[in-house]
Design brief:
- By secondary structure, this protein is of the alpha+beta class.
- The chain is built from eleven helices and 22 strands.
- The strands form six sheets. A six-stranded mixed beta sheet has the order 4-3-5-6-7-8, sandwiched between helices. A five-stranded antiparallel beta sheet has the order 9-22-19-16-17. Strands 10-11-14-15-18 form a five-stranded antiparallel beta sheet.
């Protein structure tokens, strides 16, 4: 297939590439990638792109992997889902999850409206974190406004608003759509009201997650966030502290219900990476970050006796030195080319148990090509488990990924998590963040 668009009067071409992950066909920044299984763009959409002088390309849904490893070359994505079941199509769900991890704005076109001017429908901005069955009708002009917002956010232009892509369905909601016991899910006005409140709470919680990942020519980030319910007991952050340092963590409040979710908001606000005094600042070392957070949680005297696990890492971008401290959390895993996976072991008790608890930290010198995985315990079954006489035993699925890029690793683990069959009692929040030194 050969497609073309225009940017400033010049043709943009995208030819067929080799294998998945190969990005030869996308070598320059493209404003709009139009994903569709149809042979051509709708005439009014093509006219819109040419009139607005935006670069664009048409790509089949099955070939999305060809641009997955180069999200920096994509402005926004239009997905033509006309005729597709957006709630059940796993292919579409994986694409949306990947776009969310890369913080690329997506517009989901769901059906054609055969009326003058109002020619398309798409998921409304008010429910842009889900894939509902209801849609609103919009005009081509409205469509361009959404595209412009996404591009402005992508290019860091100040337009006063930002656009976020749909979030994947929760693991529990997937089971509700296909209940194991064959019983239909509970229905009724009160149930619908509660579900809507929980859905809105989940949207609010996602607002506390990073709005973008601090990718650069030297480092690539990847992240996935899959709540067990509408809300999650997990929280993560990746933040540039200054020009030389990045702080990042995954925290897991015990449980995965509303109380745990409320505690994650407290964690987000209480975890301090640096202290600013007048015109100077001091970056907290990881052990001090853990100690301060523990004192704040323990000082709340929580009535539910809730505890938290956490692992906080500080990366010096100039020296490539990684310093970390943990509190009862799964050990981070270092992947180095040609070597077996290595757990970075440091001692540390749960947060919120003893107010005077002390935490230790360790430093690791990273090398170009190194990849690091930080995850909550909901991902342990995907990665490995501790066996009494054998030590930590990695799963075959994880070992098969140890030579892959961090994007491919996180993508594949997310696919395994969403595809596997689990019992309701086994569902847990799942969060993974990773980095790769390029």
């Amino acid at each position: 297939m050969h497609t073309e668009g225009r940017t400033d009067g010049k043709a943009f071409h995208m030819g067929k590439t080799g294998s998945a992950g190969n990005t030869e066909g996308l070598t320059t920044f493209t404003d709009v990638v139009y994903l569709s299984d149809k042979a051509d763009l709708p005439a009014e959409i093509r006219r819109l792109f040419r009139h607005k002088k935006v670069s664009f390309c048409l790509l089949p849904l099955d070939r999305y992997d060809e641009i997955r490893n180069r999200p920096d070359l994509v402005g926004t994505v239009l997905v033509d889902a006309v005729g597709l079941d957006i709630a059940q199509d796993r292919r579409l769900s994986r694409i949306l999850e990947s776009l969310e991890r890369d913080n690329i704005g997506v517009i989901l076109l769901t059906r054609r409206i055969r009326r003058p001017v109002r020619s398309f429908s798409l998921v409304s901005s008010e429910s842009s974190f889900s894939m509902p069955g209801t849609v609103e009708s919009i005009s081509v002009d409205d469509l361009w406004a959404r595209i412009r917002i996404n591009l402005a956010d992508r290019k860091h232009e100040n337009v006063g608003i930002t656009a976020k892509p749909p979030a994947p369905i929760s693991l529990a909601e997937k089971l509700r759509k296909n209940p194991a016991d064959g019983q239909p899910p509970a229905e009724g006005p009160s149930v619908d009201s509660l579900k809507e409140q929980l859905r809105l709470a989940g949207l609010l919680q996602r607002d506390f997650l990073p709005s973008h990942l601090p990718n650069s020519p030297e480092i690539r980030w990847a992240a996935t966030f899959l709540p067990a319910e509408w809300v999650s007991g997990d929280i993560y952050d990746i933040a540039r502290i200054d020009e030389q340092h990045v702080g990042f963590y995954v925290a897991d409040a015990v449980g995965h219900s509303m109380p745990a979710a409320l505690l994650t908001i407290f964690i987000k606000q209480a975890l301090q990476m640096r202290q600013t005094i007048d015109n100077t600042y001091r970056i907290f070392p990881p052990a001090e970050v853990m100690r301060n957070l523990n004192q704040k949680i323990a000082g709340q005297k929580l009535s539910g006796h809730q505890f938290v696990t956490c692992c906080y890492c500080l990366l010096n971008l100039k020296t490539r030195q990684l310093t970390l401290a943990r509190a009862g959390h799964p050990y981070p895993i270092l992947l180095r080319q040609g070597e077996p996976p290595q757990q970075l072991e440091t001692r540390g008790t749960l947060l919120g148990v003893f107010e005077s608890a002390e935490f230790v930290q360790q430093s690791v010198q990273l090398q170009p090509g190194d990849r690091l995985l930080l995850y909550s315990d909901g991902a342990e079954s995907l990665i490995g488990q501790l066996r009494d006489k054998e030590g930590f035993h990695y799963t075959d699925e994880f070992l098969a990924l140890t030579d892959a890029s961090i994007t491919e690793i996180v993508d594949r683990l997310t696919e395994i998590a969403t595809d596997r069959e689990v019992k309701p009692a086994e569902i847990d929040d799942l969060t993974i963040i990773g980095l790769q030194l390029l």
